[in-house]
Amino acid sequence: MNKHDAAHVFLRVILGLTFFIHGLAKFQGGISNTAGFFDSLGIPGFLAYIVAGIELIGGLAVILGLGTRFVSILFSVILLGAIFTAKLPAGFLGNGQMAGYELDLALLAMSVYLVCANRTVFSLDDFFSKKGEVTI
Questions:
Q1: What pTM did the predictor assign?
Q2: Dihedrals phi, psi of 92, to nearest 5 degrees
Protein backbone atom coordinates (compact mmCIF):
# COMPACT_ATOMS: atom_id res chain seq x y z
CA MET A 1 0.00 0.00 0.00
CA ASN A 2 1.39 3.38 -0.99
CA LYS A 3 0.83 6.78 0.65
CA HIS A 4 -2.05 7.65 -1.68
CA ASP A 5 -3.90 4.41 -0.86
CA ALA A 6 -3.37 4.95 2.87
CA ALA A 7 -4.69 8.52 2.66
CA HIS A 8 -7.69 7.36 0.63
CA VAL A 9 -8.57 4.68 3.19
CA PHE A 10 -8.13 7.17 6.04
CA LEU A 11 -10.38 9.72 4.32
CA ARG A 12 -13.03 7.09 3.54
CA VAL A 13 -13.11 5.73 7.10
CA ILE A 14 -13.25 9.18 8.72
CA LEU A 15 -16.06 10.32 6.40
CA GLY A 16 -18.02 7.14 7.05
CA LEU A 17 -17.48 7.35 10.79
CA THR A 18 -18.58 10.99 10.88
CA PHE A 19 -21.82 10.26 9.04
CA PHE A 20 -22.47 7.08 11.02
CA ILE A 21 -22.16 8.97 14.32
CA HIS A 22 -24.35 11.83 13.07
CA GLY A 23 -27.04 9.35 11.99
CA LEU A 24 -26.82 7.48 15.28
CA ALA A 25 -27.13 10.74 17.22
CA LYS A 26 -30.27 11.66 15.30
CA PHE A 27 -31.93 8.38 16.29
CA GLN A 28 -30.65 8.38 19.88
CA GLY A 29 -31.59 12.02 20.43
CA GLY A 30 -35.13 11.40 19.26
CA ILE A 31 -35.64 11.42 15.54
CA SER A 32 -38.89 13.31 16.10
CA ASN A 33 -36.79 16.29 17.27
CA THR A 34 -34.89 16.21 13.99
CA ALA A 35 -38.17 15.90 12.07
CA GLY A 36 -39.44 18.96 13.94
CA PHE A 37 -36.29 20.88 13.02
CA PHE A 38 -36.77 19.92 9.37
CA ASP A 39 -40.39 21.12 9.55
CA SER A 40 -39.23 24.44 11.03
CA LEU A 41 -36.99 24.92 7.99
CA GLY A 42 -39.86 24.21 5.61
CA ILE A 43 -38.56 20.71 4.78
CA PRO A 44 -41.01 17.81 5.19
CA GLY A 45 -40.30 16.14 8.54
CA PHE A 46 -40.37 12.62 7.10
CA LEU A 47 -37.13 13.43 5.28
CA ALA A 48 -35.37 13.42 8.66
CA TYR A 49 -35.88 9.66 8.79
CA ILE A 50 -34.44 9.23 5.30
CA VAL A 51 -31.46 11.48 6.00
CA ALA A 52 -30.70 9.79 9.33
CA GLY A 53 -30.99 6.36 7.69
CA ILE A 54 -28.63 7.34 4.90
CA GLU A 55 -26.18 8.75 7.44
CA LEU A 56 -26.32 5.65 9.65
CA ILE A 57 -26.36 2.88 7.04
CA GLY A 58 -24.37 4.84 4.45
CA GLY A 59 -21.75 5.73 7.04
CA LEU A 60 -21.25 2.08 7.88
CA ALA A 61 -21.12 1.18 4.16
CA VAL A 62 -18.45 3.81 3.48
CA ILE A 63 -16.37 2.63 6.44
CA LEU A 64 -16.46 -0.85 4.90
CA GLY A 65 -15.92 0.50 1.40
CA LEU A 66 -19.19 -0.87 0.07
CA GLY A 67 -20.98 1.26 -2.53
CA THR A 68 -18.69 4.14 -1.68
CA ARG A 69 -19.33 6.17 -4.83
CA PHE A 70 -23.11 5.84 -4.63
CA VAL A 71 -23.27 6.61 -0.91
CA SER A 72 -20.89 9.56 -1.37
CA ILE A 73 -23.29 11.01 -3.94
CA LEU A 74 -26.10 10.71 -1.37
CA PHE A 75 -23.87 12.35 1.25
CA SER A 76 -23.16 15.21 -1.19
CA VAL A 77 -26.88 15.80 -1.74
CA ILE A 78 -27.52 15.81 2.03
CA LEU A 79 -24.65 18.23 2.61
CA LEU A 80 -25.74 20.61 -0.13
CA GLY A 81 -29.24 20.54 1.35
CA ALA A 82 -27.89 21.28 4.83
CA ILE A 83 -25.71 24.12 3.61
CA PHE A 84 -28.39 25.85 1.56
CA THR A 85 -31.40 25.29 3.84
CA ALA A 86 -29.94 25.58 7.34
CA LYS A 87 -26.33 26.70 7.50
CA LEU A 88 -25.77 29.41 4.89
CA PRO A 89 -27.55 32.18 6.84
CA ALA A 90 -25.28 31.51 9.85
CA GLY A 91 -22.15 32.13 7.76
CA PHE A 92 -18.99 30.10 7.35
CA LEU A 93 -18.10 29.96 11.06
CA GLY A 94 -21.57 30.36 12.52
CA ASN A 95 -23.30 33.18 14.31
CA GLY A 96 -23.00 32.21 17.98
CA GLN A 97 -26.38 30.48 18.01
CA MET A 98 -25.80 28.01 15.23
CA ALA A 99 -22.80 26.31 13.68
CA GLY A 100 -21.64 27.53 10.32
CA TYR A 101 -21.18 25.50 7.18
CA GLU A 102 -17.41 24.94 7.45
CA LEU A 103 -17.75 21.29 8.54
CA ASP A 104 -20.41 20.62 5.92
CA LEU A 105 -18.16 22.07 3.23
CA ALA A 106 -15.21 19.92 4.33
CA LEU A 107 -17.41 16.79 4.37
CA LEU A 108 -18.75 17.75 0.95
CA ALA A 109 -15.20 17.98 -0.41
CA MET A 110 -14.41 14.54 1.06
CA SER A 111 -17.58 13.09 -0.46
CA VAL A 112 -16.87 14.54 -3.90
CA TYR A 113 -13.34 13.15 -3.76
CA LEU A 114 -14.69 9.67 -3.02
CA VAL A 115 -17.18 9.94 -5.89
CA CYS A 116 -14.31 10.70 -8.28
CA ALA A 117 -11.62 8.41 -6.84
CA ASN A 118 -10.79 4.86 -7.83
CA ARG A 119 -11.40 1.91 -5.53
CA THR A 120 -8.62 1.28 -3.07
CA VAL A 121 -7.31 -1.50 -0.92
CA PHE A 122 -9.18 -2.44 2.25
CA SER A 123 -12.61 -1.90 0.70
CA LEU A 124 -15.36 -4.39 -0.03
CA ASP A 125 -15.84 -2.72 -3.42
CA ASP A 126 -12.24 -3.60 -4.31
CA PHE A 127 -12.57 -7.11 -2.88
CA PHE A 128 -15.72 -7.89 -4.87
CA SER A 129 -14.32 -6.39 -8.08
CA LYS A 130 -11.27 -8.68 -7.81
CA LYS A 131 -13.43 -11.78 -7.20
CA GLY A 132 -14.66 -11.65 -10.80
CA GLU A 133 -11.22 -11.13 -12.35
CA VAL A 134 -9.57 -13.96 -14.23
CA THR A 135 -5.81 -14.15 -13.85
CA ILE A 136 -3.75 -15.71 -16.58
A1: 0.91
A2: -60, -45
